[in-house]
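Re: beginner question about structure tokens

> Can someone show what the tokenized structure looks like for a real chain? I only ever see the sequence side.

Sure, here's an example I had lying around. Input first:
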Amino acid sequence: MDIIIHFFSFLFGAVVGSFLNVVILRLPDPGQSIVFPGSHCPECNTELHWYENIPVLSYLVLRGKCRTCKTRISAQYPLVELCMGLLTLALFRQVGFSFAFGLYFLFLAALLVIIFIDIHHQIIPDTISLPGIVIGFAGSFFNPLVSWQQSGLGILIGGGILYAIAFGYYLFTKREGMGGGDIKLLAMIGAFLGWQSLLFVVFASSLSGSVVGIAAMIKQGRGGKTRIPFGPFLALSAIIFLFFQKQIFILWQLYLSSMG
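And the corresponding structure tokens:
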């Protein structure tokens, strides 16, 4: 029975992941709707049949190509479906079928969309982060994992930390090094995970972002003018904290103990 429940939790996440692909593709374009028209090939505009929309499986059966025009389909489509399926399965195993499951399912879906939109367009849509802040804070009144006080402080401190960093960077360099979208994203993360998540999220995202940024600087040869989206690093760090916060706090206590 557990295997069946786990399978359907993965399948549910993968199906939602298929819809998230539509959101990732269309949301950055204000002229497009995420609802209409239905799924179609972006090259030949042929409407897809239901059997061409089966998460992951359809991509494998079609060998990554449109059935009609044979144009190659981006591997991002099955990747998003697979990621959302696995995240949903992991979330179900952690919190079961509960209010927290519904709340953090929305959180994970929002983070996954933000990761890919920011990679492609270097923007974090306010239509995701701002409602996310409200939902995260409102949900904290019923969330057994984060209190409303922790959520409220998470919003204030999360937005404040990145705003202070961005303002300081601008004072020293006279260049904008961080967009307002990153500030709102960290506020959203604070709303869902509480203020106690922010130290890890900022540290882990800054460390991983710096490593990737240095590699990009070397590859592109543009020095300090190299720009990489920071949103994906914040989002990935938040996902890690959500699933491994107990282990993170244990390591933190061990570190403090070792420091005397």
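Each token stands for a local structural state, so reading them left to right follows the chain. The chain has a mean pLDDT of 88.
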